[in-house]
């Protein structure tokens, strides 16, 4: 982890970022408690990145120099934070907080999200950021337990 958040820049995601977005998403989803029991394949997530952008994702990336270190993606029409992932080696560096600030700016009237209850790091992050647990449910793709948060 690098703690120099002053060198972190946020910018809109471009098509050229999509491979790296998929890599970060995959690396994060493979961490214990974060993704489904059977971790998604990188190629599957890469295809999904294109599909999500085609369906209206608005995404921001966090960079240091030319390196993409994290991303956040929202579905503005639904007021949903769809994804927020930071490269595992950068967890705890403040990148997630910066990206979350961008989400709040893009969705100032509030938003919802869900995560797995086993993703304790994310649950603590969202609760410290002032989100409230709204309810529990089942993941729409995988059927495992999730917890919904909202502002």
From TrEMBL:
Keyword terms of this UniProt record: Transferase
PROSITE patterns hit by this protein: GNAT
InterPro entries xref list: Acyl_CoA_acyltransferase (IPR016181), GNAT_dom (IPR000182)
One Pfam family this sequence matches: Acetyltransf_1
Span of domain N-acetyltransferase: 8-151
GO molecular function, one term: acyltransferase activity, transferring groups other than amino-acyl groups
Record CDD domains: NAT_SF (cd04301)
Listed SUPFAM superfamilies: Acyl-CoA N-acyltransferases (Nat)
Stated name of the protein: Putative acetyltransferase
Naturally occurring in which organism (per UniProt): Aureimonas jatrophae
